[in-house]
Amino acid sequence: MTIETLSSKEVYRNRWMTVREDSIRRQDGTSGIYGVVHKPDFALVIPYENGAFHLVEQYRYPVKGRYLEFPQGTWEEQADAPPETVAAGELQEETGLVAGRMTYLGHILTAPGYSTQGMHVFLAEELTPGPQRLTPEEGDLVVSRVTVEEFEALVLEGRIKDASSISAYGLLRMKKRLP
């Protein structure tokens, strides 16, 4: 099924996203509107060593709560930076860790029903600790180490609700990258 775009107008923009409203015609000839959120792709890093992951916990304003997740982010000021560069940077920024080996696992669309954004998933191994470089938005970020078993229990308990982290973990499992 294809949907034809008849017109498009930007209705909102800030440094993190653009929202547009498209007038559309569906395959059956009916018309309607479609709201689209454009955000650049981001990198998500799964830091893994000795049977455990390094997770970050921070307050997420839109959902008014603190949640555990894998380190992730995008560089708005360097939108053309290669995903592996962003992944390495986000890992060090949020956790202080530097990966001796970074393996690309794949690209996942995060919410294709309303957004253009996707994520590049990386497995980080051979980790070396160092200083964090947190941004003002990450000032309350806390790093935790959890085993694979604890990670799965935290998902089931609802402590890990971040869809990006859960889908990246699923990709990691399907690629059989854990011992």
UniProtKB/TrEMBL annotation:
Alphabetically, the GO molecular function entries are: hydrolase activity
Keyword flag Hydrolase: yes
**Occurrences of domain Nudix hydrolase (ranges):** 36-168
Q: Which GO terms describe its cellular component?
A: cytosol
- Catalytically driven reaction(s): GDP-alpha-D-mannose + H2O = alpha-D-mannose 1-phosphate + GMP + 2 H(+)
Q: What cofactor does this one take?
A: Mg(2+)
- Which SUPFAM superfamilies does this entry report, sorted A to Z? Nudix
Question: In its UniProt record, which GO terms are filed under biological process?
Answer: nucleoside phosphate metabolic process; ribose phosphate metabolic process
**Which keywords does the record carry?**
Hydrolase
Instruction: Kindly give the PROSITE patterns that the UniProt entry links to this protein.
Output: NUDIX (PS51462)
Q: Where are the transmembrane segments?
A: none
Q: Which InterPro entries does the entry link to?
A: NUDIX_hydrolase-like_dom_sf, NUDIX_hydrolase_dom
Against Pfam families, the record matches this protein to: NUDIX
Write down what this protein is called.
GDP-mannose pyrophosphatase
Natural source organism? Cystobacter ferrugineus
